[in-house]
Amino acid sequence: MGNLFAIIIIIASGLAYTTGLESVVDIGLYDETYYLHIGLQTLTEGLPHPTNGPLYAVWYLILSLIQPDRIALYYMNYKLSLILTPAIIYGLLRANSVPRSICLALSLFTLVSTANSATWPRISHFALLLILVTLLLVGQSQKLTPHSGSIAA
Fold first, then answer.
1. Distance CA 131, CA 79 (A)
2. Number of domains observed in the structure of the chain
3. pTM metric for this prediction
C-alpha cells in the first residue's frame, strides 16, 4: 500500500464521515462566525488585529473564492480542517519513518476522534495545521540540505 493510496483512504473516509454534517452540527453564532466574517471583510477592511487571527482571516478569504455561500463556507472549513488534520499527520509520521500501517491507523483514529470533530472554534485546528505543515516542510528541507557531519561553533 503506497502513501498516495493511504492518503486517498483518509480523504475518502473523511468525506464519508462528514457527509450530512450540516444536519448534525449547528452553526456557532460567535467565535467561528466572527472569524468567517472578518475573513470575508479582509479585502475591504484590511487584515484584522493580530489577536483576531489574520492568517485565519486570509484562509477564510481564500476558501470564499471557492465557496461564496457563507453557510456552505462555514461547513466547508469545518470539513477541510477535520480531514486535512489526519492527512497531514499521516504525511508527517511517514516522513519520520513510521510504518504505513501505524500511520494510517493513527490518522483514521484522529479523523474520528472527538478531539478532532468537537473542537471549537476551528482556528485551533488551523493553527495545528500550520504547525504540522511547518514540521513537515522543515523535515523535508533538512533531507534536501547536505550535512557536513559537524555542528559549527
1. 19
2. 1
3. 0.90
